[in-house]
Design a protein that fits this description.
The complex is a heterodimer of chains A (191) and B (147). By secondary structure, chain A is mostly helical. Chain A has nine helices and no strands. Chain B is mainly alpha-helical and 147 residues long. Classes of the chains: A mainly alpha (191), B mainly alpha (147). Chains A and B meet through α1, α2, α5, α6 and α9 of A and α1, α2 and α6 of B.
Chain lengths: 191, 147
């Protein structure tokens, strides 16, 4: 039975959700690279937020709480699929990791983002991110968007530190290449 | 010259969030309404009324005790001459008789099986597991990584 208190709470919660749903969805979709999965995760996050709404409603750290829950739920979701492939992925990564030298970041391209507004940049970056393979996109997003240090990413993903570093390095290179290519295509279209 | 790391960090800094799907809010609110309309016994344990929680805990404790005693009786562990053994002797449960027969058949089979068969069976299962794992790894490297 739905009582009055619950109805009021539901009304407040709708406003709370509107304020944070873009941030939650963005975090999930950047990590998963899939809209449908990100929507499922966002739904789960807000159902947890509903259960804790009395504490979150007036909390100044509600955004941080939602971000942490989104990251954790997404990592749990992805680990279910990743666990079965981790052995093979590590086997492949070790050959590359052995060659890794810190600071190997030469040949910096022009990303083609200059002169574009924030929404255009966001669309280009999100599209390029979705094209990265999971083992590169996930650590790259955790490092650059969530500002997690290498050691924590390695620990959370249960992958060696050297593999994380090489995956992020390769991810950056692929992302930069994709962005530069898209920027070039856009310039040609504009002309 | 900026490093690629700095360049990417600058590019993603202060990026506006992506717009959530329009149906997300409706889906969440619908699920909340569904949960709110559930009777208390279909909600999670944390949402049960306190008397119901205590009753459930007491009933669970009683059930565990009964099952433990029943298991002891089926395995023949009840000491003869005790009140429990006398009571058990007078109770006839068709399922319990089947369990007893199954346990005794399994124990007779385990005792009469030559050890070489047992170790041989374990070795065959382990070898099959290793072989399938090897085939899987080789196929992955050939078909997926090689692309």
């Amino acid at each position: 039975m739905v009582n009055l208190k619950d109805s009021v709470k539901a009304g407040d919660f709708a406003g709370f959700m509107r304020a944070y749903q873009d941030m939650v969805f963005s975090t999930a979709v950047r990590m998963t690279g899939q809209d449908a999965q990100a929507q499922d995760i966002a739904q789960e996050v807000f159902l947890k937020a509903w259960e804790n709404f009395e504490q979150l409603q007036h909390s100044p750290t509600a955004g941080g709480w939602l971000k942490t829950v989104t990251t954790n739920l997404t990592l749990n979701f992805l680990s279910r699929y990743r666990r079965r492939w981790r052995f093979f992925s590590e086997m492949r990564g070790d050959d590359e990791a052995a060659d890794y030298e810190p600071g190997e970041e030469h040949a910096v391209p022009d990303l083609g983002l200059a002169g574009r507004d924030a929404d255009e940049r966001r669309a280009l970056i999100d599209e390029a991110l979705q094209r990265l393979p999971d083992h590169q996109r996930l650590p790259l997003v955790l490092y650059h968007f969530e500002e997690m240090p290498y050691e924590e990413i390695a620990q959370r993903l249960e992958v060696s530190l050297s593999k994380i570093k090489i995956d992020i390095l390769r991810g950056r290179q692929r992302l930069a290449k994709a962005l530069a290519q898209r920027g070039l295509d856009a310039q040609q279209l504009d002309a | 010259m900026p490093t690629l790391e700095r360049l990417i960090s600058d590019a993603v800094r202060d990026l506006p969030p992506r717009r959530a799907p329009t149906g997300l809010e409706a889906l969440v609110m619908q699920e909340i309404q569904r949960r709110l309309s559930l009777p208390w016994w279909r909600m999670s344990f944390a949402h049960w009324p306190t008397p119901a929680r205590w009753c459930f805990i007491a009933a669970s404790g009683a059930l565990i005790t009964v099952v433990a005693r029943l298991c002891g009786w089926m395995a023949g562990g009840a000491p003869s001459g005790t009140a429990l053994a006398n009571a058990a002797a007078n109770v006839h449960i068709p399922g319990a008789v089947s369990f007893k027969a199954m346990f005794s058949t399994a124990s007779v089979l385990a005792e009469s099986l030559p050890p070489i068969w047992l170790y041989g069976g374990i070795a065959v299962i382990a070898a099959t597991y290793v072989a399938l794992f090897g085939i899987g790894a080789a196929a992955y490297r050939t078909l997926y990584v090689g692309r």
